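Our consortium's second objective concerns turning raw sequence data into structural hypotheses that experimental partners can test. To show how far this objective has progressed, the report includes one record in full. It was chosen at random from the queue rather than selected for favorable results. The single chain below, 99 residues long, was entered without modification.
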Amino acid sequence: MRITILETPSEQKWVLQGRLIGPWASELKASWKGHDDANGRARIVDLREVTFIDASGEKVLMRMMQDNAQFIVGGVYATHVVENLWARCKSRTRASNLR
């Protein structure tokens, strides 16, 4: 798993690559908590290069959803996972945070 954080004046973009599983999900969770100073900028999570997401990865993504993250997805797999998570996440509407 590779996590790249790109910051601009208007957004904080998280580019994830690889498998979002176990210890890497924990690392992502810790990084997300450590960068909660978005200062009103959009927080965008790019999942286009994620190849697999296990249950621990799903929990981290749900936390990001609850923190108002927007998601960029590509391909059937990531789209399916994110749409299922939105269905389970009652506090947000899928349409406003899926690009």
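The partners drew two points from this record. The longest helix spans residues 75-88. DSSP finds four helices and four strands in the chain. Both points have been shared with the crystallography group to help prioritize constructs.
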